[in-house]
Amino acid sequence: AQSVAQPEDQVNVAEGNPLTVKCTYSVSGNPYLFWYVQYPNRGLQFLLKYITGDNLVKGSYGFEAEFNKSQTSFHLKKPSALVSDSALYFCAVRAPSGGSYIPTFGRGTSLIVHP
Amino acid sequence: GAGVSQSPSNKVTEKGKDVELRCDPISGHTALYWYRQSLGQGLEFLIYFQGNSAPDKSGLPSDRFSAERTGGSVSTLTIQRTQQEDSAVYLCASSFPTSGGETQYFGPGTRLLVL
Asked: Which of B102, B105, B110 is best to mutate for the A interface (most A CBs within 10 A)?
């Protein structure tokens, strides 16, 4: 079975400071990992994904995430937070090719960026 | 191009009534997913359609829930004899499966309130 943990329900950061939203996963084999963002009253939007290759993945809006196999983590980061980054962030994992096409999502982390 | 659309955007119903929620996926996307998002619970997988294959119904919480997908495009999620615990946001997503970890495109959701 595959699972995702987002240990923080909420992350608070001041505008201009770096931000990190944590995600750890459990899956058999090499994972496919995703980050999505949800703004109020909207559906989820894709931010970035890790499939293979470089452990540092760059995505939309200046976000990046680092795949760490030994720690089974895929933390989302941004060097300088904006107030407009305030939203709900979801990490997801999917088993590699040959497994289920259904990703498992974490419970979400609410990011609040203070002016 | 057009994204995933869902209707209605909001639905208020009385306990015991049946409701139908509609999802129009992105044209050409063969995979379609339904999720339920409850406050603080993250995304709960409900059902997955892929092309002409039998749907994966493993996430449906009870036999009151059913879904169909006509012509490989539009999907309808039906909840019979609604209960108050069915109140949630129902999200639909579509994707085009690849061997490299497909990105899901989400609709804005239908917010269901059962009184």
From this structure: B102
What is the DSSP annotation of A32-79? EEEEEEE-TTS-EEEEEEE-SS-SEEE-GGG-EEEEETTTTEEEEEES
- Rounded distance, CA A37 to CA A23, Å? 14
Please list the pLDDT of chain B residue by residue as tens digits (115 residues).
589 999 999 999 999 999 999 999 999 898 999 999 987 678 999 999 988 888 999 999 999 999 999 887 999 999 999 999 999 999 999 998 765 668 899 999 999 999 9
Q: Are A93 and A32 in contact (CB under 8 A)?
A: yes
Please name the residue of chain A whose CA is at the shortest distance from the CA of residue B107: A43
Q: Determine the Cα–Cα distance for residues B77 and B24; give it in Å rounded to an integer.
A: 12
Q: B-chain residues within 8 Å CB-CB of A37?
A: none
A107 neighbors A88 (Cβ within 8 angstroms): no
Tokens coding B59: 């996430």
A98 → chain B, closest CA residue: B99
What residues of A are in contact with residue B107 (Cβ under 8 Å)? 43
- Preceding amide of B8 cis, omega within 30: yes
Retrieve residue A30's tokens: 């090499």
With CB atoms and an 8 Å threshold, state whether B103 touches A101.
no
User: Would the CB atoms of B101 and A107 count as touching at under 8 Å?
Assistant: no
